[in-house]
């Protein structure tokens, strides 16, 4: 299966990259301006070059003409024009890495990777590393600026969990992008997949099709969410690049499901925080849809959530709040929002609690809501049991 896409169509930034760049530009304009204008100091460049020379063996075009020739072809396919230097670093395991310096290409090889990979696989390996350079250079360097901001945020001891998870996901999606670059320069996904497996296992011979079948067998046992911190698991990367090569229409949704999963209170990134805020707003609109629920006390509580609340808020479709969209933690959170509003007006309490319990049951969290009533709502057990009976009778 060959890849016939043109470069500009093949290696677009992923939707996650676009969303993060857009979010940072809009929500943190001063930080974005600072990071965009931050000049790399010449002293830093000299220190990095010296470190590379100190800790590696520099390969020259004269001593290693084969790998330089492959690198030149890869750079031409990726439309990269910059001086390139290759290095061999010490390590037991095989790998490669790009040291990003603006206007310069520096690629490090680790272990026996040059000896263990065939020409197609070296092409894929260099395609992967040089695709990092291409991404960081696109759109005036926006995607590198976003990465720099996230890296600086992680260095802050006060960084929130959402910032940590955003940086993690940004890195995972960047590796998926680079895998596409590997397949693009190789002309097919096979060399990219076999390179991934060789680097992971050290094995000499790999059947890419057989490994894909192995990955799909694992997938058939149920959707598996990535637990990786810097690079997605190899079985996910292999499927992702194969689906991309096949122009799978559901690829973006598939990646979302494997790298991020449903909305979860413990794993919110900056984008999902906004998504949860929007879902909360629509959910509240659905809960107070009935006129009796819109008492002054309830609406005062609603405006504590959203001070700019209007009378024409769009409402959530309860059937759309599936486990694929939001996990139990989010649906329980929505239950607590309902509980908060239901207890805001004593005159509406019985009606509001019955409606909240009914919606909780529709979300698959009916029992959890009744338990929350006992623990957090301060209702006696007999009142909760009475509510459960009313709910059963209404059903």
Structure description:
The chain is an alpha+beta fold. The chain folds into two domains: 254 residues, Zincin-like (2-Layer Sandwich), CATH 3.30.2010; 125 residues, no CATH class. 62% of the residues lie in helices and 6% in strands. It is built from 19 helices and four strands. A four-stranded mixed sheet has the order 1-2-4-3, sandwiched between helices. β3 and β4 form a beta hairpin. α10 crosses α11 and α16 packs antiparallel against α17. It is elongated, with a radius of gyration of 26 Å. Keywords: Cell membrane, Hydrolase, Membrane, Metal-binding, Metalloprotease, Protease, Transmembrane, Transmembrane helix, Zinc. One of its GO terms (biological process) is proteolysis. This is Hydrolase.
Q: What is the H level of CATH, i.e. the homologous superfamily of the largest domain?
A: Metalloproteases ("zincins"), catalytic domain
How can the largest sheet be summarized?
4 strands, mixed
Q: What sort of overall outline do the alpha carbons produce when their principal axes are compared?
A: elongated
Q: How many structurally independent domains?
A: 2
Query: What is the total tally of β strands?
Result: 4
Helix content: 55-70%
Low-pLDDT runs of 5+ residues are none
CATH class of the largest domain: Alpha Beta
User: What is the strand content?
Assistant: 5-15%
How far the N terminus sits from the C terminus, by CA atoms, comes to: 55 Å
Reported CATH architecture of the largest domain? 2-Layer Sandwich
The number of helical elements comes to: 19
- Largest sheet, spatial ordering of strands: 1-2-4-3
The succession of helices and strands, N to C, reads: HHHHEHEEEHHHHHHHHHHHHHH
Structural class: alpha+beta
CATH topology of the largest domain: Zincin-like
Protein name: Hydrolase
Keywords: Cell membrane, Hydrolase, Membrane, Metal-binding, Metalloprotease, Protease, Transmembrane, Transmembrane helix, Zinc
Domain Peptidase M48: 73-134
Cofactor: Zn(2+)
